Amino acid sequence: MKNLFFIVAALAVAAVVSVVLSSKTEDAENQVGVTATLNGISDKTVETIKEKLATAEGDERPVAKEVGPWPKAVAKSVDYDFGRMQVKTQLDHTFTIRNDGEATLNLKAGQSTCKCTAFTLSKTSVEPGDFAELFIRWEGKFNDERFSHGGPVYTDDPDMPEIRFVVHGAVDDPVKVLPEGLWDAGTVTDSAAGTFKAIICSKVFDDFKITEIKSNSPYIETSVEPLTDKVRLEVDALAGFFVNVKVLPDMPPGLLEEKLEITLDCLKDSPVIVDVTAQKNGAITVLNSPDALWVASSSGIKLGQFSAAKGRNATLMLMVQTKGMTEPLQISDVEASPGFLKASLEFDSHASHEMDRYKLLLSVPPGIPPRTSRDGSNPGTLKLQLNHPSGQVLQLKVAFSTF
Question: Which domains does the chain have, with CATH numbers?
Fold first, then answer.
């Protein structure tokens, strides 16, 4: 009998636990469903749902009396245009709500939109003739040409139960670099420099200065001049400068790739970094080949995809001016990254009495790890010191991937 009693009791406890767990699971599923739904709807709909949820949770708004005297809520301004602000910064503004009625005005701040970090009233009861202040602070997290956020304040004025306040404007980067990306000064010769003209401007600051431009290359010179009014209007900027870049004729043959560090007084701790490039032909010219793609503008060779177990060989043709040469062209030193990249030279033929052809043999040996990848953003490099009387150095970028 006792055993039967314990069995019945155990079954009863199990039933209760099952009901509780079922209820909790259902609640959790409902919560997940609501969250998933919110992720797929507009900000405006989300804010409406937030307001309704707040009301459902006991957010009691002021209610107007059925008979007077009544308060009268007056807001001189409910809309504030802040113009432009810098992305990832905050601004704030204070609105005023005055009571021009004959009874105490009761206020309650509603649910503000998600970009507002503060939406607070200085007081919630305002006597006749007095006023309250609504303080709004907002953050421009992302670039947005049509930033608009705010929220409601609820009152017990029967003629004005809700006043909606909004701040709006544009959120933008502090400065713009035009063009974006690489600044290419073109081809440099022994008699002509390579040049490039760029623009640094701002839609946020109406007055800023370029305080310094630094480069590690002795072959780069820069100068700065204010934008003309015509160009400033064309790029829709408040202020800006032309940046003139000159790559001098005495740069060595080959590809020049350097960085400019441009310091602005409005961004002292965050200099603008741009890449500058220029090309100068020399006594040694690299030509394309049928078994690899040579990109002269970047001194790059693309080996494609190949088996790591088999490796890869490729050949580039070199046209070499023989003036001043007393011995065949040779590689005197190699700097390779990764270290397994190999390079060697073979004489091919006499092209003319002033030019010889050489084969530049490049190899990735078999046995390197599979899924090794070197692309345009992280290429392998080869720096070849040669015995040519011109002193020209060959610098190559090598892109490939293995399987």
Answer: 70-172 (2.60.40.10), 176-280 (2.60.40.3170), 284-402 (2.60.40.10)
Residue of 150, 155, 186 lying closest to 61 (CA atoms): 155
CA-closest candidate to residue 301, choices 315, 311, 319, 318? 315
**Average of per-residue pLDDT across 4-33:** 40
Residues 6+ apart with CB under 8 A from 230: none
Tokens standing for residue 370: 């599979």
What is the full DSSP assignment across 199-239?
Answer: EEEESS-SS--EEEEEES-TTEEEEEEEPPHHHHHHTT-SE
Cβ contacts of 281 within 8 Å, gap of 6 or more? 187, 189, 253
Query: Which DSSP category does 292 fall into?
Result: B
Tell me the two tokens of residue 78: 């409910």
Global confidence as pTM = 0.64
Q: What are the residues facing 107 on neighbouring strands?
A: 155
Termini Cα distance of the chain: 74
Question: Helices H, strands E: what count in the chain?
Answer: 3, 27
Mean pLDDT in residue range 385-390: 94
SS3 119: strand
CA proximity to 247, closest of 297, 190, 201: 190
How far is it, in rounded angstroms, from Cα 204 to Cα 153?
31
The answer to whether residue 11 scores a pLDDT higher than 90 is no
What is the distance between the alpha carbons of residues 282 and 238, in angstroms, rounded to a whole number? 44
| Segment holding 14, helix H or strand E | helix 2-39
Q: Which two tokens stand for residue 232?
A: 């400033």
Q: Between these two residues, 166 and 289, which has the higher pLDDT value?
A: 166
Are the C-beta atoms of residues 132 and 124 closer than 8 Å to each other? yes
Rounded-to-integer distance, Cα 180 and Cα 274, Å: 9
Token representation of residue 276: 């500058």
